[in-house]
Write a structure and sequence with these properties.
Structural class: alpha/beta
Number of domains: 4
CATH class of the largest domain: Alpha Beta
Shape: globular
Number of helices: 20
Radius of gyration: 26 Å
CATH superfamily of the largest domain: Response regulator
Largest sheet: 5 strands, parallel
Number of strands: 10
């Protein structure tokens, strides 16, 4: 009889303290038999999270106000009667404990008992739980699309990463919008962020390659401008009898037979690369050796490292250094000469010595940028945002472009995800539903227009 694999307990967590949510979430998810599928700040948001993620257990952080969670717990149990509800509390009278139990709390854990007590009640068998699905439950594929949208990926990029068609991605996005009751990608990311769903990482998309093994040789993917340096790199690889691929067509490399089936490490060797050459590194998710025939400025070096370069070789030293750098890069090392790195290290050190700002100061947004970020998270279009703020749509677009640049993103969904990571999104604001007339929302948010930027 085959061994029975222990099922992972899925947990949803509520606490008004973001620090507590993040800390407990990390502590629980570090266990192989537990995973946190979402977090919320307000108890009233727990039913929406449970509808989307179907957890096995729910933890409420009641603190010294145990009776205040009784109504939300009672409402939750009416919708999910088999749910394992756990409440942590700081101090409570006997009447408070009785009220919590009547509401449906199955386990009461005093804060003083610590994490071990919490783990014990989470792992306690309840004699139930048959995996079930619901039309409103968010699937792993939908969660993947939602996380990729929050990372700023376009529909074609998501389709390529997930190995599905762009039309399928669009259909999945429509299902996500219906389940979250939203009308745009940014609005979906905002709602998911408020439920803690974006903090949880779904299973990565299926990859063709198995993890590389050091028992097999390094495969080098060579690309770049035709030059004597490129010729010398290929000659050295031929002489070493190591496998390599000279790339001319950079499209769909992840589907090439060598990318799918090579069992050893794969390293890119980019000789004086152009922008299209760096796409190889991103598509294959491999390290790169940058072979450069001219000195690099600090900005160029920073860009190369950001694009995936982990090693530098000057064209003059190819014959002496390339093979040793290739071996170390294949083993995961960063190999960079100290001389070009010194200015960059100095810049990092100067930045490090600066005063560390509070979370609300990262990044420093103007009042207008904050307004546009907030309305984007609530699902308003550019024209609706312009009407609400009393400015022109073109002005909204210009401010939004500056906002994207500050946050390092390319679209509204990415801006909302980054703002959530910085704690810049309100946790209690209710975004209007997709069928609410925007003029009603304008009446709620209307204020004197400000024309200064």
């Amino acid at each position: 009889m085959p061994p029975v694999t222990a099922r992972v307990v899925q947990v949803a967590l509520q606490s008004p303290s973001r620090l507590f949510r993040d800390t407990l979430s990390s502590s629980l998810s570090a266990r192989s038999d537990l995973t946190v599928v979402g977090t919320v700040a307000e108890p009233d948001k727990m039913p929406a999270l449970c509808e989307l993620r179907r957890p096995d257990a729910v933890i409420f952080d009641a603190g010294s106000r145990l009776t205040e969670i009784c109504r939300p717990v009672d409402k939750l149990m009416q919708q999910f009667p088999d749910l394992n509800v756990i409440a942590t509390y700081r101090d409570a009278a006997e009447a408070d404990l009785s009220a919590a139990c009547r509401a449906g709390v199955s386990s009461l854990v005093p804060e003083a008992h610590g994490l071990e007590a919490m783990l014990t009640v989470l792992r306690r068998k309840r004699g139930r739980h048959v995996a079930r699905s619901s039309p409103g439950e968010m699937t792993d594929r939908e969660l993947e699309v939602l996380v990729l949208a929050g990372s700023g990926h376009s529909v074609p990029e998501m389709a390529d990463l997930l190995g599905i068609s762009p039309l399928t991605v669009e259909n999945i996005k429509r299902r996500i919008y219906a389940k979250l009751d939203v009308n745009s990608g940014a609005h979906a990311v905002s709602r998911a962020a408020s439920l803690g769903i974006l903090d949880q990482h779904p299973k990565p998309p299926v990859r063709y390659r198995e993890p590389p093994s050091e028992d097999f040789p390094v495969l080098t993917v060579v690309s770049g401008q035709a030059s004597w340096a490129l010729d010398q790199v290929t000659q050295i690889l031929v002489a070493s009898k190591l496998p390599f691929v000279l790339v001319r067509d950079r499209s769909n490399l992840s589907k090439a037979h060598w990318a799918r089936w090579h069992r050893g490490p794969i390293v890119a060797a980019l000789v004086d690369p152009e922008a299209a050459d760096w796409a190889i590194v991103e598509e294959l998710a491999i390290p790169a050796i940058l072979v450069h025939s001219k000195p690099l400025e600090s900005g160029e070096l920073a860009d190369a490292l950001a694009n995936g370069a982990t090693s530098l070789v000057t064209a003059e030293t190819i014959s002496e250094r390339f093979m040793s750098v290739l071996r170390m890069t294949g083993q995961g090392y960063l190999v960079v000469d100290s001389r070009p790195m010194r200015p960059l290290i100095g810049a990092v050190r100067a930045r490090w010595d600066q005063r560390t700002p509070a979370a609300g100061d990262l990044p420093d947004l103007t009042a207008r940028e904050s307004d546009i970020l907030r309305f984007g998270a609530q699902g308003y279009s550019i024209r609706q945002t312009a009407r609400l703020l009393g400015i022109a749509p073109k002005t909204v677009e210009n401010i939004q472009t500056r906002l994207f640049r500050k946050l390092g993103v390319r679209n509204r969904a990415g801006a909302v995800a980054v703002a959530n990571a910085f704690g810049l999104l309100p946790t209690t604001a209710q975004a209007p539903g997709p069928h609410q007339p925007w003029m009603q929302a304008a009446a709620q948010h209307d204020r004197p227009a400000r024309h200064g930027h």
